[in-house]
Write a structure and sequence with these properties.
This protein is α/β, with parallel strands linked by helices. The protein has 11 helices and 8 strands. Strands 1-2-3-4-5-6-7-8 form an 8-stranded parallel β-barrel, surrounded by 6 helices. Helix 4 packs across helix 6 and helix 6 crosses helix 8. The protein is globular and about 45 Å long. It starts with a strand and ends with a helix. It binds 2-phosphoglycolic acid.
């Protein structure tokens, strides 16, 4: 499987001119890469990506709403996204859980609607520092996966789901998860998935790492720890650094 490198631009950059420039320069550097590179810009910049893109470059969203359409001011639905060239949707990012009151129930509804609209959800899970200190990492990941995927049938997610392991304490802190520890977490996630579904299904679901990824540690997560890809935040809005992450991951 070729690595999938996701650029989560979050609420950046502040002008469409900068967004065009950032996309243009990264695109030039990575268009021949063997990695699949996914740009997740703020919705307002989606038009930049409406031109024909190189085969290995795809577009993703940072969030979506689970209802199809209607009186939901400020929301963008999965169905609306699927009408654009959106292939992936990040669901349940810890910043959404923290600042926008997302929980496992809304995450579950969003996962279902993304799948119904033939896109691939990237389900973000991960523990806080406090939960890690308490020794409850396994329970947290178990609950987030079980509830996030509740009533989602196995055949539906086969080759159509990515899980991003993003320990909250590693996001935006410059304190990435130890490679060996991240490898354990990847195996734990696979084990939970195999309990929820079966081994074959668990093998089919790609697990990404996210949290202070940079060009110096990217290859270790993919080549040593075995992650199927990376979810990159801060470094994804620096064109040289992000291009180097993509290069180092293959
Ligand atoms: P970071 O963010 O790379 O800035 O740590 C990762 C994320 O939030 O997905």
């Amino acid at each position: 499987m070729k690595p999938i490198i996701i650029a989560n631009w979050k609420c950046n950059p502040t002008t469409i001119k900068e967004a065009r420039k950032l996309f243009g320069s990264v695109c030039k550097n990575v268009k021949k890469s063997k990695a699949e590179v996914v740009f997740c810009p703020p919705f307002i910049y989606f038009s930049i990506f409406s031109l024909k893109l190189p085969n290995n470059i795809k577009i993703g969203a940072q969030n979506c709403y689970f209802e199809k359409a209607g009186a939901f001011t400020g929301e963008v639905s999965a169905s609306e996204l699927s009408d654009l060239k959106c292939k992936y949707v990040i669901i349940g990012h810890s910043e959404r859980r923290k600042y926008f009151s997302e929980n496992d129930l809304t995450v579950n509804k969003k996962i279902a609607s993304v799948l119904d609209n033939k896109m691939i959800p990237i389900l973000c899970i991960g523990e806080s520092q406090e939960q890690r200190d308490r020794g409850s990492v396994q329970d947290i990941l178990n609950i987030q996966l079980r509830e996030g995927l509740r009533n989602i049938a196995g055949p539906k997610i086969k080759n159509n789901l990515l899980i991003a392991y993003e320990p909250i304490w590693a996001i935006g802190t410059g304190r990435p998860c130890d490679i060996e520890e991240s490898q354990k977490m990847r195996l734990l996630i696979k084990k939970i998935l195999s309990n929820l579904y079966n081994q074959n299904m668990a093998n089919n679901v790609g697990v990404l790492y996210g949290g202070s990824v940079n060009s110096a540690n990217a290859s270790d997560y993919v080549k040593e720890a075995g992650f199927e890809g990376l979810l990159v935040g801060g470094a994804s809005i620096k064109s040289q650094e992000f291009s180097q992450i993509v290069k180092n991951s293959v």
